Amino acid sequence: MKFLRPAIEYKQQILEYKNEFIENGDSLDGTSYLAKYDVCEEWIKFVLDNEKESTKHTEVTANVFLAIREEDNKLVGMINIRHTLNEYLYNYGGHIGYSVRKNERRKGYAKEMLKIALEECRKLAMEKVLLTCDADNIASARTILSCGGILENEVKAPNDAILTQRYWITLKNKLVL
């Protein structure tokens, strides 16, 4: 698997990814507002601008990566790495958000993506990384635990019935992939 920054050459796959998630009623986690964009080029500009403190459009600087399966150059997932946390991200969103296509789940891609993302966090000199998931998302919880996540607590956002689990991963010098 390789991580690539969003690029126009993947426009068709990005649009198919977005439509697939919408049709399935799935959350586009880790896609940095992809659902809000009708024009792929505008979304690509948004996420690339958001990588730099000087041009970011959101409260925190972040990187979005396309997770591309090398054998067939297929987009299987997306992941968003936030360099810092605002209050909402600290409580409910975490440093990393990710999603995997429905027909590509249960193949180990989420775990592989998270491991690569943790290496990216290490490059950003992060020492601890917060990940969150809905309490009923057993697959995501297992992925986080398999990468060293330690459950800190469970919280509910105001006016939200969903219970969120908060996990911390302490980054060591080198993660074994």
Automatic annotation (TrEMBL):
Every N-acetyltransferase domain range: 8-172
InterPro entries attached to this UniProt entry: Acyl_CoA_acyltransferase, GNAT_dom
The keyword Cytoplasm belongs to this UniProt entry's keyword annotation: no
PROSITE patterns for this protein: GNAT (PS51186)
Gene3D superfamilies with a match to the protein in the record: 3.40.630.30
A Pfam family it matches: Acetyltransf_3
UniProt keywords, alphabetically: Transferase
Highest taxon listed in the record's lineage: Bacteria
GO molecular function: acyltransferase activity, transferring groups other than amino-acyl groups
Protein name, as recorded: Predicted acetyltransferase
